[in-house]
Amino acid sequence: MKNFFVILFIKGVSFFLKIFGKNGGNLPGKLAFKLNPNILKCFKIDCPVIAVTGTNGKTMTNNCIVRILEDDNKRVISNLEGNNMETGIVSTLIKKCSLTGKIKADYLVLETDESYVPIVYKDLKLDCLVVLNFFRDQLDRSGEVESLILKINEFLKTYDKNLILNSDDPNVSRLAMANPENKNIYYYSVDRYKFATDELREAGEGKFCPFCNTRLKYKYYQYAHVGKFICDKCNYGGNEIYNLLENVDLENRSFEIDGTTYTTKFNSIYSTYNFAAATTVCKLYNTDLISMKNTLENFVLNNGRLEKMVINNNDTIINIAKNPTGANVSLRLVNEDNEHKEILFVLNDNIADGKDVSWIWDINFDVLNNVDRIITSGTRAFDLAIRIKTSNYPVEKIEAYTDIYEAIEHLYEKNTKKYVITNYTATQDTRHKLMRFKEKCGDK
Ligand SMILES: [Zn+2]
After folding, report:
1. How remote is the CA of residue 217 from the centroid of ligand 1, in Å?
2. How far does residue 208's CA lie from ligand 1's centre (Å)?
3. How far is the CA of 185 from the centre of ligand 1 (A)?
4. What does the pLDDT look like over 339-375, one tens digit per residue?
5. Handedness of CA 272, 274, 277, 283 (dihedral sign)
6. 61 and 154: one domain?
7. Is 220 found in the same domain as 80?
């Protein structure tokens, strides 16, 4: 009976937050845990629970899976706003459950922060875990990548349900060995694409075999340490692929799966990997293929992740980058585009970003294709400007303004294409100020 009152009370709190125009985020979940630390055990769920985790691309992959399932006429409950820690997940569940804690849906799809996977899913029965990649991220909060992988590995030792793994990330595919009894392992992979390299160009982890410590041999690198690798000694990396994306064509934004061509609105290798993960889930749960094709064609994100705007007649592409890999992927997009352009890079060091911004030294600024100017901004504008200067980019083409609006005014002095790269807390702020500037210019 007690849970009934907890759920009723929290639903009431969420309702009032909504009246006052607040989303609430993690707050209802935080309160629920205070009232009942075992709240996660109280939900009655009889649909498959699918969790998406990894360092980069969680929100995009999660939301893409949800869209495909919904377009296939399934009822889906998900934390689409990205509240992906324990309290955010509980907030979502309480908002959507009945007063008895029952979840009425065909699927529950939950973006889950890497460090919360073992905590949340010891109490919520998981049917499918999707692991995207592991990169260095927000050092201050999560600690080392290796300890994170080991925590998830420990959790997986007793897990025997579906496990979807990125075969091309050695940090991820090693998780298949956590429980040798688990026969429900599904690998996805992306075939070599046009801009793959023979040598490692960017910062990456996982260059040694996790089982025998031999240096891994790469046939090619797609980005960072993601690519086709093999351990000569123990054959680690020689996986049988369940879902392979072939003929990746970034110019035409298309790829093939099992002979069918899919087009999307995205043109980065990084989003291609997210689509590889999402389509693996849909393949596994037998989603209608034509519906999936239509969804992928129309799928967009409106939260600063590869968002496009026209401001003062200039094409502007906004992308979030909260770690070196994210930043390198953004710069890859810049370099694969032959047009002349200018970059605005906004770097904050608020608590949610991690106070340590030393990761900017792992960003590869060495090769920049037709970049006429780089403006830096945010609380660490000058650190970033110095970092870029040391990469031999012409110093007269670098400008730093701590004030974001001032930086934007300078960015649009000249008419060229713009790329805006922002880290975590800088994203909404920059986006907001871009909109304000756009309004001032009289754009619609
Ligand atoms: Zn090995």
Report:
1. 10
2. 8
3. 19
4. 999 999 999 988 777 778 888 998 999 889 999 999 9
5. negative
6. yes
7. yes
Q: Say how many Å lie between the CA of residue 164 and the centre of ligand 1.
A: 21
| Ligand 1 center to 211 CA (angstroms) | 5
Task: Give per-residue burial for 241-265: e unless 16+ CB within 10 Å, then b.
Answer: bbbbbeebebeebbbebeeeebebe
- Ligand 1 centre and the CA of 215: distance in Å? 8
Distance of alpha carbon 5 from alpha carbon 25, whole angstroms: 21
Q: How far is the CA of 401 from the centre of ligand 1 (A)?
A: 48
**340 within a domain of the structure (yes/no):** yes
* Mean pLDDT across 173-183: 97
Residue 54 alpha carbon to ligand 1 centre in Å: 23
Structural domain includes residue 158: yes
Assess whether 289 and 320 both reside in one domain: no
Q: What is the mean pLDDT of the chain?
A: 89
DSSP characters over 282-308: HHHTT--HHHHHHHHHH----SSSSEE
12 within domain boundaries: no
Helix (H) or strand (E) holding 432: helix 426-440
Q: 420: number of CA atoms within 13 Å, CB side?
A: 34
172 plus 197 within the same structural domain = yes
Structural domain containing residue 331: 307-440
Kindly indicate the confidence band of residue 304, based on its pLDDT and cuts at 50, 70 and 90.
Answer: low
Q: For residue range 136-164, what is the model confidence (pLDDT) as tens digits?
A: 654 545 457 888 899 999 999 999 999 99
Distance 236 CA to ligand 1 centre (A): 5
Q: Using the mean position of ligand 1's atoms as its centre, give its distance from the Cα of residue 214 in Å.
A: 6
CA of 216 to the centre of ligand 1 (A): 8
Nearest partner of 4 among 81, 114, 127, 98, judged by Cα: 98
Ligand 1 centroid to 56 CA: how many Å? Answer: 26
